[in-house]
Amino acid sequence: MNGFASGYRNALNTKERDLREQICKIGELMYRNGYIDGASGNISARLDEKRVLATPSGLAKGFMSPDQLIIVDMNGNRVDTPNAANASLKPTSELSMHLECYKQRLDVNGVVHAHPPTSVALTIAGYDFRRCVVPEAAVILGLVPTAPYSTPASVENRDAIQQLIREHDAIMLSHHGSLTVAKTVWDAYMRLETLEHTAKILYMAEMMGGAHPIAPHQVEKLVDARRRLGLERPGDMERFCAACGLSLSKAAPVEQPSTPASGDDLEARVREIVRQVLSELAL
User: Fold this and answer.
1) What is the pLDDT of residues 207-229, one digit of tens each?
2) What is the C-alpha separation between 208 and 170, in angstroms, rounded?
3) β-pair partners for 113
4) Fewer CB within 10 Å of terminal CB in the chain, N or C?
């Protein structure tokens, strides 16, 4: 019994250690890629059903050390033992928004909040991201909604995403930033990259005369691919029908989704599907 308990504790310690290092790496990438500045942005990962590992407030996320991260319970109370590196630090001011994601979605184990400049600029200009223009974005992100403006680091900011996060893996926060979630914190970060990359493409397309949508029958294939990859969210088909001209009566029957892909495997599969669609568009 003692041996089992010891092995279990070691496994937990390994998981926590790996997550701490991964969150710090993500913070560094967010800073280097210009998705955050100063002490902005925050990252968290679910340790277990009762605890979340989160970045501290007021700290530059691009220069964190693993021992500076803080563990809280699902009510936001600190439950770790402070060390020399984080004793004076407090959890991120956006913690309530992160915890809401975990409460609403048992499948979510990682949350990333950033301030990607092109994406945020488009919300300030009133741009609607719910368009079928970029194939990879349609598959990986679905149709990204924009939550109404709410004061950052406030309860109203948490409330603004409460309903949306149930049916979306990526949300824009008007005039403020982005929120991406996933089965792992690394995949949540990868969705942030896809979101900002897509925003840059949309911005350039609009500057060149307008972003022309993909034909509905081609969008159907992307939606089907999204389903087969295990990325479909509740209400997806209705949203794609409303935004992209699909017909519900012609929509493919809902099949049992496969296990969601992640990392390099997801990227490779999405690229192959997009290549097939683009070849039919003769692009």
Assistant:
1) 999 999 999 999 999 999 999 99
2) 26
3) 42, 179
4) N
